[in-house]
Amino acid sequence: MGFLCCGSGTAAQVSAGASKAKAKAKAKGRKAKAKAKALYEREAVSVPAAELIQGVLHLDVLSARNLPNMDSHYFRGLLQRETDVTDPYVTVDTISRGKKTARLIKTAVIKDSLNPHWNETFNIPLCHEAESFFFAVKDIDLIATAFVGSMSLSMEDVTKDDAVEGWFPLERKGGQPAGELQISLRFTPADKLTRTNEVPGSVFPMRTGCAFVPYQNAHTPAVPPITDVIARDGKPYEPSCLWLDTLKAIREAEKFVYIWGWAVWAELEMDRTNDSEKWETLGEVLIKKAKEGVRVLVMVWDEAMSTDVYPVGLMGTHDEQTEDYFKDTDVEVFKCPRKKAKARMFDAFMATTTYTHHQKGVLVDAAVPAGRMGSIIGRSNSRRVVGFMGGIDLTDGRYDTPEHDLFATLKTKHRNDFYCNVTLDNTAESGPRQPWRDIHCYYEGPIAMDLLANFQNRWLKQNPEKKDSLLSITEEDGFDLKWSADKQTSKDGSSWNMQLFRSINSDSVEFSRETKTSRLMGRKGRLYEDSIQKAYIHHIRRAKKYIYLENQYFLGSCHSWLNKETLKAPNLVPLEICARVERAIAEGEDFRAYICIPLHPEGDPTSAAVQEILRWQSRTQEMMLDRIARAIHAKEGLEAHPTDYIMFFAPAKQEGPEEVPKDLTDPNPETIAAKSRSSLRYMIYVHSKLAIFDDEYIIMGSANINERSLSGNRDTEMCVGAFQPAFTKETAGEGMEIKGDVRTFRLAIWAAHCGKIMPEHQNPASLECMKAMKALGYKNLTTYIADEPCGTESRLLSYPLEYGVEGSVSSRKDCVNFPDTGGLIIGKASDFLPNSITT
Question: Is the separation of the CB atoms in 328 and 361 below 8 Å?
Answer without folding.
Answer: no
